[in-house]
Each structure stands twice: as structure tokens, then as C-alpha cells.
Amino acid sequence: MLDVDSTQSDVLIIGEGSLFDEGLTELLKRSTNLAVSHVVYSDEPAFMNVVQRAQPNVILVCQSGSLNTRQILDWISMSPLMLGLCIFVVRFSSPVVDIYKQPIQDTGKTFQPPRNVVARTANDLIDILRENI
User: Fold this and answer.
1) pTM to 2 decimals?
2) What share of the chain is helix, strand, coil (3-state, %, to 5)?
């Protein structure tokens, strides 16, 4: 499912095709007026192509298995087209959401340290996303 409409997305959800990321996709589509796209991660070139086509304001990475979030953050930070993106990492096993802002290319760091926010309910997560779009 690495095909995204050519229209811009407010939120691009990246996952492994788990019930967790599919559920988050449905939650955001039904509970918000955000343009939400969902892709199943397969490899770096396909992922970067989808991100460049979708031009999201926010990427939400669903970590529920073996998805390498650190590698995804590194790839995003290496592309000049990705500067200014806000990346959210949500985990199946924890209510803590990591929020990464502003990839930094010239300081040797990939991103500024994440801000950690607790989202105990679906509404908490939606509010956090809206604050950052």
C-alpha cells in the first residue's frame, strides 16, 4: 500500500500494516477534518518517494513492531525537502508520544531532542496533532 494520492496530506501515517496503525488512520479520518494518508513501510526509497509526493505537514510513525524509527528519522533529516516537518512517534506499548521538530542538517544532529507528551485518550492524541499542524 505504498501509493498515496497526489494531493497534499496533513498527516501521513507510516506503519507496518498492523491493526494499530490502521486503527489510528481510521480514528483520524473519522474524528477530524484532516487529510490523512496511510502507507505501509517497505523500504527507504519507496518511503521517501511517498513522503515527497504526499508533502505532509506531519508524519505519524506507528511503532508496534520492528519498524526502525531512528532510521526513518535519519532519512527524513537527510532530505532538504523535509526541513520543517513535524514527526510524531506513537507506540502501541506506551501512551507517550515523541514529537520531533525541525530536522537539523548542519550541526551533526538529526533532530532536536524530542518533546514527550502523554496521550491517554484518542482526543488527547487528536489535540496534540492539531496543535502541531
Assistant:
1) 0.82
2) 35, 25, 40
